[in-house]
Design goal:
Blueprint (H helix, E strand, L loop, with lengths): L1 H35 L1 H6 L2 H37 L3 H32 L2
Pfam family, one: DUF7653
Organism: Malus baccata
Protein name: DUF7653 domain-containing protein
């Protein structure tokens, strides 16, 4: 299990980060081309770019959340293997899971606040 989590942390996150960067680069390219082509201006309005940027930011936040989840899992696995008493391991696991849940909730609240302010 630890090997799988480690693989996801290295290869999986690398793929997600590269994909996110590619999306950002493509969006910038489309923005530049839209300004040069009159027919593109009609089809690609400002709302399209705002929504696309929000989606790219969502991908970035999702990737960060995934990274934190993997880090939490890695910590839980490490704690499980290093603690000899089940009672201590259980308490430590509960604390790490609580921290993980709080980290997951935070980006959703920030995104909701952003949408409310910009609506």
């Amino acid at each position: 299990m630890r090997t799988r989590v480690s693989c996801l942390q290295s290869r999986g996150l690398s793929i997600l980060n590269e994909s996110s960067q590619l999306c950002s680069n493509l969006l910038e390219l489309v923005k530049g081309k839209a300004g040069q082509l009159p027919e593109a201006k009609q089809e690609l309005d400002g709302q399209f770019f705002v929504e696309s940027e929000m989606k790219v930011q969502g991908i970035n936040r999702g990737t960060e959340s995934f990274a934190r989840s993997l880090q939490t899992m890695s910590g839980l696995l490490h704690e499980k293997s290093s603690l000899s008493t089940p009672k201590l391991a259980s308490k430590s696991a509960r604390m790490l899971m609580h921290q993980h849940i709080q980290m997951i909730k935070r980006p959703r609240l920030v995104a909701a606040e952003y949408v409310l302010r910009h609506s």
